Amino acid sequence: MTFVGVVPVRDGRLPLGADEVTAEAGGRVLLAGSGTDDGAAQLTTATEVRCVELKGFAPGTWAAALAPMLRREDVVVLPASPDGRDLAPRLAAALDRPLLAGAVAVHDTGATVVRYGDRVGLDLRCDGPFVATLVPGVRGAEPVTAQPTVEALAVDVPAGVRDAEVEAVLEPEPETMDLAEAPRILGGGAGLVPPGADGAATFRLLAAVASALGASMGATRVATDAGWTGYERQIGTTGVVVNPDLYIAFGVSGAAQHIGGLGEPKHVVSVNTDPSCPMTAMADLGLVVDAPALLAELARRLGVAEAADPSEEVTHA
Questions:
Q1: Banded pLDDT at 173 (limits 50, 70, 90)
Q2: In CATH terms, are 3-153 and 179-308 the same topology?
Q3: Which parts of the sequence belong to the Electron transfer flavoprotein alpha/beta-subunit N-terminal domain (predicted)?
Q4: Would you call 282 exposed, middle or buried from its count of C-beta atoms within 10 A (0-12, 13-18, 19+)?
């Protein structure tokens, strides 16, 4: 049984989850796109790297070009990054294989995926070769010490493939970007909403403050289960796994499933009245103050309180 990772590269930048896909494939990876040599130098889990230079992301054309060299591989794994999610179904169609999307683990006969709002894990099995996408930030990756072998390959790029045309590539807005890729996050927990308060309005205010600071808004499972914000904002092992440069936790006690989804943030600030809670214990800076009061003061100083008027309709990006 042979495994290989396929990682799309843009201008030498690896997508989130590239090292995890490489590790899941046993160190074997095919980098496709522009600046693949630079991408290969950034990998920490690779033992065997093949590089294919392709111009302009065109998932249909790329799939047709890569399929011939991937037919002999039993399991093809891609990151569940934006480009990976675009390329994987087209590659599966070109190879005439099933696609197991959103996997948290890939094995010889299939993959483990999460469904139903990340609440249920399913073990999907295949009788033959398949393609899978691996959710970034879930599996982790152990760096290898040896230098990988790197080989540049040329492929025939077919003409006339019907494909999506990229008009422009826009940088994501912090308030709507995928939490898994957010560099700065303001997270809210149950301690951010006082008894009897409007939780949805409080989280609208948190989102407005985060936006004013160039950050994204996240939440604990308690907050999403209560309906205060959408499940796409949930951080944890049952939600989105993040790895930000800065995480500011407002009223977050630090349950194990939440901390398990934090990855390795460079800096953590905890705002909580409990100085002994797990989140404050792991923080670089702990502010033992009332989280709702501090949020309200931040909103006042930033001039965003009006943007989070509780009477406004709630929409989740």
A1: confident
A2: yes
A3: 5-168
A4: middle
Question: How many Å separate Cα 70 from the centre of its chain?
Answer: 25
Q: Using one digit for the tens of pLDDT, what is the confidence trace for 99-151?
A: 999 999 999 999 999 887 667 889 999 999 999 999 887 787 889 999 999 99
Q: In whole angstroms, what is the distance from residue 297 CA to residue 304 CA? A: 10
3-state helix, strand, coil in the chain (%, to 5): 30, 25, 45
Average the pLDDT over 25-33 and give the result.
Answer: 96
Tell me if residue 129 falls in helix, strand or coil.
coil
HSE, side-chain direction, 13 A CA sphere, residue 100? 28
User: What is the architecture, at CATH level 2, of domain 3-153?
Assistant: 3-Layer(aba) Sandwich (3.40)
Each domain of the chain, given as residue ranges in start order, spans: 3-153, 179-308
Residues sharing a CB contact under 8 Å with residue 297, sequence separation 6 or more, in sequence order: none
Confidence of residue 305 (pLDDT cuts 50, 70, 90): low
Query: Looking at domain 179-308, does it have CATH number 3.40.50.1220?
Result: yes
Q: Enter the tokens of residue 275.
A: 């100085």
Give me the residue label for tokens 């990340």.
Answer: 118
Provide the pLDDT for residue 46: 96
Query: Which among 210, 9, 281, 45 is positioned nearest to 142, based on CA atoms?
Result: 45
CA–CA separation, 194 and 52 (whole Å): 55
Q: How far apart are CA 66 and CA 82, in angstroms?
A: 18
